[in-house]
Amino acid sequence: MDLDALVSNAQLLQSSLPPGVRLEAVVKGDAYGHGAVAVARALVDAGVPSLSVATFDEGLELRQAGIVVPILILFPIPPELVPDAVRHCFSVTAGDRTLLERTLAALDGLTQAAGPEDRVLPVHLEVETGLGRGGFNLTDVPAAAAAIEAAPRARLAGLWSHLQAAGDPNRTADQTARLGVASSLLEEVGATMPDRHLAASGGMLAASAPGFDVVRIGLAMYGIVPDGLTVAERHAATAAGLRPILSLRARPIRVTELPPGSGVSYGPSFVTTRASRIATLPLGYADGLPRCLSNRAQVLVRGRRVPAVGTVAMDAVMVDVTDVAGPPVTVDDEFTLIGRQGREAIDATEVARWGNTISYEIVTAMSGRLPRVYYAAARTVQMRVVACDMGLAGGEIARAGLAGEEEPGPLGCE
Question: pTM of the entire structure?
Answer without folding.
Answer: 0.90
